[in-house]
Amino acid sequence: MASQVKSLWRIISVFFGLLLSVWKLILLLGGIFTLCVGCLMLFDGKCFSESVYVAFITFLTIGYTDLAPVSTIARIACVILGFAGIAFMGIVVAATIKAIEKS
User: Fold this and answer.
1) DSSP secondary structure string, 19-56?
2) Distance from CA of residue 72 to its chain's centroid?
3) Quick count: other Cβ atoms within 10 Å of Cβ 12?
4) S-S: 36 plus which of 1, 11, 77, 85, CB 3.0-4.6 Å?
5) What's the DSSP call for residue 60?
6) What is the DSSP letter of 65?
7) Rounded to whole angstroms, how far apart are CA atoms 6 and 12?
């Protein structure tokens, strides 16, 4: 049991270490997310909570259709955010695989 806990702790620490090594990319993704929320609020007239909701479902590539961007600029921002979400999920998967390989 103790060896399994040590192994799990090693995987978690390597995973977060790898994520910290790509902090610039994560910061860029946060900027893109903020840009999309701002576009939804400014150009579509959505409130803050709806804008964050739409940005999250777009970033995580879930794609519920209850709320969607209306203006062209907000749609472009959401498309960019969707591609950024795909890239982020790839980074998370790669970091997880690397962490498992190193343990």
Assistant:
1) HHHTHHHHHHHHHHHHHHHHHHHHHH---HHHHHHHHH
2) 22
3) 12
4) 77
5) T
6) S
7) 10
Read off the pLDDT of each residue in 73-96 and give the average, rounded to a whole number: 89
The model's pLDDT over 18-77, given as tens digits with 9 standing for 90+, comes to 777 777 888 888 899 999 999 999 999 999 999 999 999 999 888 888 888 999 999 999
Q: How far apart are CA 13 and CA 5, in angstroms?
A: 12
What are the sequence ranges of the domains in the chain?
20-102
Opening angle at CA 23, ends 19 and 24, nearest 5: 145
Q: Is 61 helix (H, G, I), strand (E, B) or coil?
A: coil
Backbone phi, psi, residue 70, to 5° = -105, -45
Nearest to 78 by CA among 67, 93, 89: 67
Check whether domain 20-102 has CATH 3.40.30.10, yes or no: no
* pTM for this entry: 0.75
